[in-house]
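Need residues for this backbone.
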């Protein structure tokens, strides 16, 4: 398990990944998952590798304390956002922006990679960008 540097206190949650292809039917092993802070300077907080089943270990990341989000009139978002880049041989890289992490919760982020076409040279610099699901509208799963 990897842990991100946490300069803001002891509150935090976990983020884990399921890397798939073929409309989520097949796992993608050995995918490299890079986590950076959303809106930050691009500093890498952690790197994970998916196993042969397409699953990663969890990474602990800072999130606002749960108690603060339960207070009436709280203006702070109840989660912290992180950017994710997933790369695997034979697949287009995928980037997600704003994956949510909640205090004391393990969030599962599924990423569906698209393979390169057969007998086609690997495209250079091609990326697929996605917005992470809105966690306040049911876009985050608890494990």
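Answer:
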């Amino acid at each position: 398990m990897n842990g991100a540097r946490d300069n803001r206190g002891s509150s935090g949650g976990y983020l884990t990944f399921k890397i798939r292809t073929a409309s989520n039917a097949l796992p993608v092993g050995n995918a490299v998952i890079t986590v950076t802070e959303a809106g930050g300077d691009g500093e890498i907080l952690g790197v994970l590798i998916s196993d042969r089943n397409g699953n990663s270990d969890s990474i602990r990341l800072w999130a606002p304390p749960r108690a603060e989000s339960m207070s009436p009139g709280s203006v702070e978002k109840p989660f912290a956002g992180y950017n994710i880049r997933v790369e695997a041989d034979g697949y287009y890289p995928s980037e997600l922006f704003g994956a949510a992490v909640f205090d004391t919760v393990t969030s599962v982020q599924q990423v569906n990679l698209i393979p390169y076409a057969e007998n086609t040279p690997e495209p250079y610099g091609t990326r697929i960008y996605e917005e992470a699901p809105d966690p306040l509208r049911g876009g985050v799963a608890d494990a």
